[in-house]
């Protein structure tokens, strides 16, 4: 039986993928190499990790309006994550995710999502239901 985490209802379609988890905050502008598809800021805990088609599980969002159009640009080239799972997200990144068609959820009832989900774990994100299902859990 899989474990289900409850969160605020999000945006985008249901998706299943492998979690890429860190307790760091996130900026599409400063943390990513949007051409190579890897985390590029040396100070980020995911530095060097390939984020393409992974479910990014991170703490909070940082940065401004550039993130919104960057997500859409990444999606247009298919160099994008499968989904975003955050403790907290700001309206700018939510708008960018919606524009890019990327699933996004935040505000978990169970606590800090960066400690609830394991790096490399297979998960299903169900934004409209406000759920993240941990598929590898007994």
TrEMBL record:
Signal peptide: none annotated. It holds the Pfam family AcnX_swivel_put. Residues 26-105 form the Phosphomevalonate dehydratase small subunit-like domain. InterPro entries: PMDh-S-like_dom (IPR002840). GO terms for molecular function: lyase activity. Keywords: Lyase. This is Phosphomevalonate dehydratase small subunit-like domain-containing protein. It comes from Starkeya nomas.
